[in-house]
Amino acid sequence: MKAYNKKLFPKNFLWGASSSSHQVEGGTINDWSVWELAHATDLAKHAQTRLSSAVYHHLTKLPIWDDIKQNAIDPNNYVSGQGVDHYRRYKEDFDLAASLHLNALRFSLEWSRIEPVEGEWNQEAIDHYHDYIAELKKRGITPMLNIWHWAMPIWFAEKGGLKKRRNLKYFYRFVQKIADEYGHEVKYVITLNEPNVYTTLSYLTGEWPPQEKSGIAFIRVYWNLTRVHRQSYRILKRANPHLQIGIAAQLANIASKRPHNLMDVIQTEWMRYFWNWWFIRRMRKEQDFVGFNYYFTDYYRFGKFDGPDDPPLPFSDLGWYLEPEGLYPLLLRVWDHYKIPIIITENGLADQNDNYRQWWLEQTILAMEKALGEGVDLRGYFHWSLLDNFEWSTGWWPKFGLIEVDREHGMKRTIRPSARWLAEQLADTDSP
Ligand code: BGC
User: CA dihedral in degrees (302, 308, 309, 312; nearest 10)?
Assistant: First the structure.
């Protein structure tokens, strides 16, 4: 039975998958790869404690800890290394994406390849991404170009990265180069991925490089990122007015634990403002669509972050409780606030045995259909991710791919059953 009712979706709806350079390419040399090598042993040693503090608090340990333990305590798990060799196998991967009837792909440029040394452009890398875009288009896949997905060249990180306002000129020079090189080849550009998540984990909780735990640094970086987006928008539009530009914001469906409790409601409204709206409000005039990544429904009880009491819900392998239908109220809220086209730039789950991915996709399609029925101008959906990939500080064991990659056996790609199911749903959709 088809879950997907094509008639409810606009013509040219973007059905895509997302990825990011550092997580798949292999051989990237940037601030993250340096940090991984320095911290792999430590990350492995404290894996269990770190992971159990990250999971939904009613669980005492990761649902699949026994299965993944061997990987989680192995330092190699925390090194991106050869990635899934996507830098070399991109054509094969695009063939697979096309066979799934996907008509769009969001990918990020690896700044550290394009400008490995300050002020010196690497023509080989520049040509690579020209070819990358051409190969996507050849297969009827619309490229969505993401300029920055967290990793940065070592020279830029050593100058203090995005914390220093005087460093932003280097970012703008990079954006100008991107505008000149690729601006006429693509229609959709994302400037930044999840500024809120990056700033929180890298500068507030100190989990990610550069591991600062400073409220002041947090505010500076967050504020600088608003500048970066706005200025990048101007640079890109000046060179290529046709571009449709946004960010990939991390938005949660933030809800009150006790919907009639005034204190819970106040906390909820504050969190919605702080986590969801603050950044995109600052760039209201500089976005052609609202792009957002949806993974979480977060419940707030006054004074604390919470979850449903006894969630009748499955958990992902990372211990995140899964509420795909939370996308619907979130879509309504985003539409209500901004009234411009919306693209879901990421959405998915870590599920190595593919137990819940099809269900997640079914519920997500339903949520999108309901929102479209209410007049929400939704233009696209990108699943995270096309391939299994390197999940930042948790490394290789979390499996987010529509396509499984066996790194132990020649990087063999295998389409997961849920992805086959999705492909059946999309079989007769139009390409844009
Ligand atoms: C990020 C991805 C990440 C995914 C799953 C998103 O927050 O943009 O890079 O792999 O979530 O955690």
Answer: 170
